[in-house]
Known about the structure:
elongated; binds adenosine-5'-diphosphate; binds magnesium ion; 19% strand; six-stranded antiparallel sheet; seven-stranded mixed sheet; alpha/beta
Amino acid sequence: TISVVIVAGACGIAAGTPLAILGAIGRAAHLGAIIKGGIYLEALSRVDTLVFDKTGTLTLGRPVVVALAPEAGHSEAELLTAAAMAEGRSEHPIAQAILRCAQSRTIQPPDPDRFQSVPGRGVFALGSLGQVVAGSRSFLLEHGIEASPSGPPDQPGATEVLVALDGNWLGTIWIADTPRAEARAAMAALRAMGIRVILLSGDNPGSARSIATLLGIAEAEGALLPKDKQTRIADLKRSGARVAMVGDGVNDAPAMVEAEVGISMGSGADVAREAADVVLIGNDLTKLVDTLRVARQMRRVVLQNFTGTLVVDGIGLGLAAFGLLNPMLAAFIHVTSELVFIVNSTRMLPSRSNA
Ligand code: ADP
Ligand code: MG
């Protein structure tokens, strides 16, 4: 009886699991991925679908103005001044691009009296110039402004920002962003791990598709509002996928919360970093791939400890029950097996070399 009690007390699960999780979180932190809790690490280890936002996530999010296309009767300066007044208080990367362009041409936009930013759509401002609406084609349509389609410049994945003043369309500002250097390789690595990669963007479908093609992503959808991104994630979950959402913007926050794991770029908006379960401090997508590997390795270690404990305890109990194991030997098995599982878990601890 004493042998049974002693040998059954060995628990590699209780001893090894917290250590494996702690080690994996530490290792991920070394990689630059802050995981906000063990439960997210576990969820991350099961993820089979990764959904990416485009602007600021797969691209650098430091777009530049590549072309100004004022409508007949308006000047480039007029177009830029109106846009800059509206974008002055927006934290969207597009706004920064427009403001930098205005600054480089020494345009001093007036401060707006009223300002409103609609995530995933555009901005609205009221000021000394009048009422400015800047954003996507559908955003302008909502304000009753119809703009004729303008041809994109020869820049793959360029985004159009349409600008209107007092209900009149002034023209289009073309903005282009470059994909992150490591994005293509990271997407290939994810595919090799058997992960389904999807791009969901608020940007126009043409630009979403061309960035997807450039990065080797098969599934891409554009013109999505924050709510639409969230719905897509919910649909994926319903179809049985285990989804993580990677984003950087206010427009990604609802989708990040909906997903099993929300992952934010370190450079993302405050709301995005707050809504996320994992924050990629260095914005490096290869580190995201490495973090997924760490999570999967952690899961393997915990499972090894689990099955190992069951086997050792099962055999030990059997032997002890039939009087084939004396208490001394039972104690020895208890201590060694636990030690083995603890040592197995220490493999997850960050080593000095990758510190
Ligand atoms: P993504 O999903 O690719 O990160 P967003 O959802 O942030 O893109 O933006 C989607 C679209 O909404 C942009 O392509 C742009 O047309 C419009 N938009 C959003 N914010 C702004 C802004 N501050 N100024 C102008 N246009 C904007
Ligand atoms: Mg974004």
